[in-house]
Design goal:
The N and C termini lie far apart (56 Å). The chain is 54% helix and 0% strand. The protein has one domain. The chain has helices at residues 3-17, 23-32, 41-57. It is mostly helical and 78 residues long.
């Protein structure tokens, strides 16, 4: 089995266990249950690819990047 298929199967297991939960709670449960020891390397890249595809398929909310803080050199914008 590939890293991608293993990650997909893990996410599917979490989703079926939490079928009655809100989509945001399912997404958090999946993110909190990362099955590999480190978030680096091929396993992590496969996890991210599978996570992106899995979340899109089941309409789970993907995290968005945080809005950056205002630039200290420019000061307040009018």
């Amino acid at each position: 089995m590939t890293w991608y298929a293993t990650a997909w199967g893990h996410m599917e297991t979490i989703r079926t266990r939490r079928a009655d939960a809100e989509p945001a709670a399912i997404a958090k449960a999946i993110d909190d249950s990362y099955p590999y020891s480190q978030r680096s390397g091929w396993a992590y890249k496969a996890w991210l690819d599978a996570r992106r595809d899995f979340f899109r398929k089941y309409n789970l909310p993907l995290r968005r990047a945080r809005k950056p803080a205002p630039d200290l050199l420019q000061g307040a914008q009018p």
